[in-house]
Amino acid sequence: MNARPKKSFGQHFLHEKRYIERIVSAISPKDGDVVVEIGPGEGALTLPLLAVAHKMTAIELDTDLIPDLQARAAAVGELEIIHSDVLKVDFSELARARGVERLRIAGNLPYYISSPILFHCVDHSSAIQDMHFMLQKEVVDRMAAEPGSKVYGRLSVMLQLACRVEPLFTVPPGAFRPPPKVDSAVVRVIPLPAAERHDADPRRVHDIVKAAFAQRRKTLNNALRQVMDSEAIRSADVDPKARAETLSPADFVRLAKVPVLPA
Q1: What's the average model confidence in pLDDT over 231-247?
Q2: What domains are there in the chain, each with its CATH number?
Q3: Position 8 pLDDT exceeds 60
Q4: Is residue 260's pLDDT more than 90?
Q5: pLDDT band for position 2 (50/70/90)?
Q6: Per-residue confidence at 200, pLDDT binned at 50, 70, 90?
Q7: Sequence-separated (6 or more) residues with CB below 8 Å from residue 35
Q8: Residue among 107, 73, 74, 78 nearest 91 (CA)
Q9: Which of 31, 146, 185, 254 is 20 to 30 Å from the Cα of 54, by its Cα?
Q10: pLDDT score at 127
């Protein structure tokens, strides 16, 4: 199949065999795994994954791609295709419907919506065993960035508080049709076990991290003015004059656990 890529869906179809094989090897599917692929496209990853797992679910928004993919998959294994925006799919409910505790998620994510998809997966991380995504390399760099890095930010903190992030390898533009203007990268994301997750209020963590990085050049004292005062910041053993990019994910958790005084 050679479908016409649609700009509106951010489609870049992977076609180079050696990178397909490397991604499938990284995922290492096993018979019985409940694999869910986001955006299967022409099935470059779907079919080799299905050949091993034998049963799969794919989430595809582009109706034009579904009939051909369904027909080709029938000769390989059992593929259920959910026609939906992935942000509307409840992975926790999907795991229950498949009779498993956790899903294995994979996909070549559209660049324009990659961060929302990542945050959506984090929201359902207790129902996910692992994730293997191909993304714009710059996004993978941000996901894995350490404090002090120029690309360390909200995405870095929120992902690292919930998951272990492991960049695997880079994929050049020529491996896709049409070639994107940037390099891509494959990343493995593994949700942390319950015992290693923080116990702060998730909404409070989200609000503090979002406010702290909203204007990177501001000190915490100014950036968090609407969320907490200098005294509260100091009580978390954090310097109010520091900037957000210097704080570790654990620092943000301590800030979130400072009691909120009544207005």
Answers
A1: 96
A2: 7-196 (3.40.50.150), 202-256 (1.10.8.100)
A3: no
A4: no
A5: low
A6: very high
A7: 27, 29, 49, 53, 56, 57, 103, 104, 105, 106
A8: 107
A9: 185
A10: 96
Q: Which two tokens stand for residue 156?
A: 């870095």
* Residue stretches of the annotated binding site for S-adenosyl-L-methionine: 12, 14, 39, 60, 85, 108
Question: Taking the CA of residue 88 as centre, how many other CA atoms within 13 Å lie in the half-sphere pointing to its CB?
Answer: 7
**What distance in Å separates the CA atoms of residue 205 and residue 200, rounded to the nearest whole number?**
7
Which burial class, exposed, middle or buried, applies to 111 when counting CB atoms under 10 A from its CB (0-12, 13-18, 19+)?
A: middle
Q: Which residues are annotated as a binding site?
A: 12, 14, 39, 60, 85, 108
Bridge partners, residue 89, by sequence: none
Residues for the chain: how many in total?
A: 263
pLDDT at 217: 86
CA 110 to chain centre: 11
Residue 39 phi, psi dihedral angles, 5° rounding: 65, 65
